Amino acid sequence: MNATMTQERTALVLGGGVGGLIAANRLRKLLADKKYRVVLVERQRNHLFQPSLLWLAVGDREPGRIQRPLHRLLRRGIEVVTAEVTEIDPVTRTVRAGERDLTGDAVIVSLGADLASDSIPGLAGAGHNLYTLEGATAFRDALASFRSGRIVVLTATPAYKCPAAPYEAAMLIDAALRRRDIRQQVSLDIFAAEPGPMGVTGPTMSAAVRQLVESKSIAYHPSHQVTTVDPAARRLVFANGVTAEFDLLVYVPVHRAPAAVRASGLVDESGWVPVDRSTFETRFKGVFAIGDVTTVPLSMGKPLPKAGVFAHAEAEVVAANIANAWTGQGTRRAFDGEGKCFLETGDGRAGLGAGNFYGEPVPDVKLYPPSRRWHWGKVLFEKRWLRKW
């Protein structure tokens, strides 16, 4: 038998989010022979299904319901290392995880984005981070006792993961207030650093999302880049000279690549990891990057959105190609830019955005109108995800 075919190999998967979880599971299934090791490195002990943070923030989920322990992967033959990745050497494919050095024949970097709330002075102490379990839970508790005043949903940066999330959050908050019959006592505003909702989907869908938001009497203020926040005065200060007061604040923080990735030589001037848009291999052979940590320029000048649906598809492609290279079995795959996401609008309804983000000259994405069908589609997806992966 060919020596190459019998060689023991190790695949290192860095990160236990959507992309890392899919990559590790697919690799283990495709590389059934135990001479192939699949090692997942993640600093958290639990996998958090982040799309459900929106429901948690308005009291429709409990924290324990949207998490699962990663050690369950051991039953599938996936090794789990619970440690923080502090160093990555892409030349030797060596990773420092806690007190251990791990070397892989292939490395998949799926470490996501660090949430840098502290990069905006005063922000962390003034509001609640929509993208963390702690922040969403604290906002839920604050919202439950809120009776009147001004609620602000803020995006602290023009580009962030899950571009629909702050707009969904505002519409879910609106619905929660109406259920309690206090909507008339509350003003609800979105202050966005970006010039329009979900601009990377193209102008048609962006306009449709804005119309949805404003139809619910949610005031939308685009192109407002926050510079400082005064927690005592509950005041936002923007680069254009505008100030705004709030009584309750929930925000999307500034994103940046994790420190280990920034120090590795993998990132470019964008601050993220450039990859081949079809295979997601980096400029270092055998080193791949998927999900939020990457940058993939589109023809319209914006990058491919940081979203779980893309991390999922990218992980499938990378796992298939690694398995094909190592075993000679299966076929090579390429990511085609297709993606879709649900858009929660409140009252048990959701829209669906779907299409090709590699479309020319702009992404070919369509918004299917809100209905109960799409809401229950997201609920079913959540249940399947937490059960299957």
What name goes with the CATH superfamily of the largest domain? FAD/NAD(P)-binding domain
Could you say which structural class the secondary elements and strand pairing correspond to?
Answer: alpha/beta
Q: Strand arrangement, largest sheet?
A: 5-2-1-9-21
End-to-end gap: 35 Å
State mean pLDDT (0 to 100 scale). Answer: 95
Radius of gyration (CA) equals: 21 Å
By DSSP, the count of extended strands is: 25
Number of domains: 2
Q: List the uncertain runs.
A: 1-5
Say what the CATH topology of the largest domain is: FAD/NAD(P)-binding domain
Query: What's the tally of helices?
Result: 10
Name the shape in a single word. Answer: globular
CATH architectural group of the largest domain: 3-Layer(bba) Sandwich
Proportion of residues in helical segments: 25-40%
Into which percentage range does the β-strand content fall?
25-35%
Query: Which CATH class of the largest domain applies here?
Result: Alpha Beta
Largest sheet: 5 strands, parallel
